[in-house]
Amino acid sequence: MPDLISALQLSAPEAALAVGGLVLLMIGAFAGEKSARVVSTLSVLLLIGATALAVTGPLGRAFNGAYVADPLAVYGKALIFLSSAVAIVLGDGWMKRTRIARFEYPVLIVLASAGMGMMASSGDLISLYVGIELHSLALYVLAAFHRDDLKASEAGLKYFVLGALSSGLLLYGASLIYGFAGSMRFDEIAAYASTNPSTGLVFGLVFLICGLAFKVSAAPFHMWTPDVYEGAPTPVVALFSTAPKVAAMVLIARTLEGAFAGSHDQWAQVLILISLISFAVGAFGGLVQKDLQRLLAYSSIANIGYALLGIAAGSTIGIQSMLLFMTLYVIDQFGFFGILLSLSRNGRPVRSIADFAGLRKERPVTAIALTVLCLSVLGMPPLSGFWGKWAVFGAAAEAGYWMAGAAGLVASVVAGFYYLRIIKLMWFDPAPDGQPVTDKSPVEAKAIAWACAAFSFPLVIIGLTWLQPLTVAAAAGFGAG
């Protein structure tokens, strides 16, 4: 009985989200669509409460090592849950603007967050798979949430079919690992791999990495990303760009550094190759895009390549650089989507890159915020995106992968074209056909966008108080089994 109580205390954040999500579902089912605003508010409060439980809760292991609560999991969950709360706020404004009031939206995000929390705390292959599937099933539905839109339905179907394929790869890799190691637990797999290296175990690891790479939309497993980003509702894409990627990156770091720390030379080569392909696909694929959400899809592919470089370094500094990069990336992404959700032209949402033409004259404050965010994601010093890339490139160079870091730098220069094109349109081109940009969005989207842009300035970054927890989280992640 004491062991059960301790396990429930450790897993309190996920338990609270699971139970709270079911309660909110019942409220919405009985009260109908008129309860959408109330359910959204309660969902945000529930996610904030889960964050508090994760931060203030005890540390340790539960369920025979399947669940791990350590500083890496705590930091990951805080970022995941808060990102999910921001996505609910953005979605609430979108539903009011489009007059689509559905209580299922925040409930699905809450349930997905429970799965993402499990991913961050996975201690064996079973909890890894359960966390991935729990959050993926909710995301499949969210991708097709606007069911009256043909593109949204197509996005949901593509995501589901390709997600099933990636799950097959992941399960096949997990079965090979279990077959050779004889255990599901990361610490026992690490003990076996360090004393009995085998080709079969490496093959299983490669399949496992391929399945996980799909979840972060790393190339060449990115095929779903542009179409899903284009077809899914904008606030859903904001969620896809942030919380699930953080959960998957923390899971990758925990799995590789925990279960396969002794096989670093093998899996680092795979991660470096995936990073290089992601650089090329993200940088060059974005050059021909006209839809802004498709452009952000290719941008995310390239940026995931940068984050994977940090993990490939195989060191505490590498994991710290990955966490820093993902934190700053999430903030920039929410800034972009906050601006997208706050503007419309000629009665339709701003989606095309050309729609930003003339924004300087019509919405100068928004133009300044978007310029800062573009330069930050580009990696222009001294904005926050520069420090994120500086950290991962530095970790890669310290580990001897300086050529991969140089390739990432070249990709950043290439990607600079499409960010600078947006800035050029805003500041130097006239509005298309004289159509003004209108601003009828709730204040939440604008406040999020401006806050994220303000966060990009270096004085704010230097003064952050979470850098020490980030360092502790990285130290826990290195060798986390």
Description:
The protein has 481 residues and is an all-alpha fold. The protein has one domain. Strands 4-3-5 form a 3-stranded antiparallel sheet. Strand 1 and strand 2 form a beta hairpin. The longest helix has 32 residues. It is globular and about 70 Å long. It starts with a helix and ends with a helix. The model has no long low-confidence stretch (mean pLDDT 86).
Measured by DSSP, the beta-strand proportion falls in under 5%
**Spans with pLDDT under 50 lasting ≥5 residues?**
none
Q: Please write the string of helix (H) and strand (E) elements.
A: HHHEEHHHHHHHHHHHHEEHHHHEHHH
* Count of discrete domains: 1
Biggest beta sheet attributes: 3 strands, antiparallel
- Rg, please? 21 Å
With strands numbered from the N-terminus, the spatial order across the biggest sheet is 4-3-5
Beta-strand segment tally: 5
The percent of residues in helical segments reads: over 70%
User: Helix/strand/pairing class, anyone?
Assistant: mainly alpha
